[in-house]
Amino acid sequence: SSGVLLGCCVALGAEEHDVDRWFSRHGEALWQPLVEKFQTYKAAMTSPVEKLTLPLDYYENGRIRAVLRAERAQIFPDGGIYAEKVCVEMLTADGQADGSLTAEGCVFDRKAKHGYCEGPVGMAKGLDRLKGRGMYFSTDAQFIKILAECEIRTRRIQNNFGRF
């Protein structure tokens, strides 16, 4: 059976005020510094590393939570990273694959453990797939927000839309 395709991001099973509270915790002010750094870092990428692989976040037990893989990237003195053709691989606490984020261009703040991506983006976890344009993500808070043209493919929602 094929997955369900939805044309927008939907929060199922939550009251409207719960959804508003979730998004207000991750408002634009939190992400604005990264958005502003995107073009600055991109222009300053004068000596990129090719085919970079770099752990981004760790669990308390010392295992890697997220790994950045990029075709080209540069790490800046303030702890910021600008990367192109990006895949962030997410791992479980026992080291198993737990999904991935992909993007054409990305800025990541290593101290805050969150990032901002421009252009086409995607997320895959199990059989679920999301894609769109532009994305905020936090490895620490386990949060993503696709900014435009969001498309969701999931098998979690049955083809019975009458029960929404």
Describe the structure.
- The structure is a single chain.
- The protein is α+β, with helices and mostly antiparallel strands and 164 residues long.
- The chain has 2 helices and 8 strands.
- It has helices at 16-25, 28-44, and strands spanning 4-6, 49-58, 64-75, 80-91, 97-109, 114-125, 128-138, 143-154.
- It has an 8-stranded antiparallel beta sheet with strand order 1-8-7-6-5-4-3-2.
- It is globular.
- It starts with a strand and ends in a 10-residue tail after the last strand.
In terms of topology, how is this protein built?
Blueprint: E1 4-6, H1 16-25, H2 28-44, E2 49-58, E3 64-75, E4 80-91, E5 97-109, E6 114-125, E7 128-138, E8 143-154
Antiparallel strand pairs: 1-8, 2-3, 3-4, 4-5, 5-6, 6-7, 7-8
DSSP E strands, number = 8
Distance between the termini: 20 Å
Radius of gyration: 17 Å
Strand content: over 45%
Judging from the principal axes of the Cα atoms, what is the shape? globular
Average pLDDT number: 82
List the secondary-structure elements in sequence, H or E: EHHEEEEEEE
* Strands in their spatial order, largest beta sheet: 1-8-7-6-5-4-3-2
Structural class: alpha+beta
Helix fraction by DSSP (H/I, runs of at least 4): 10-25%
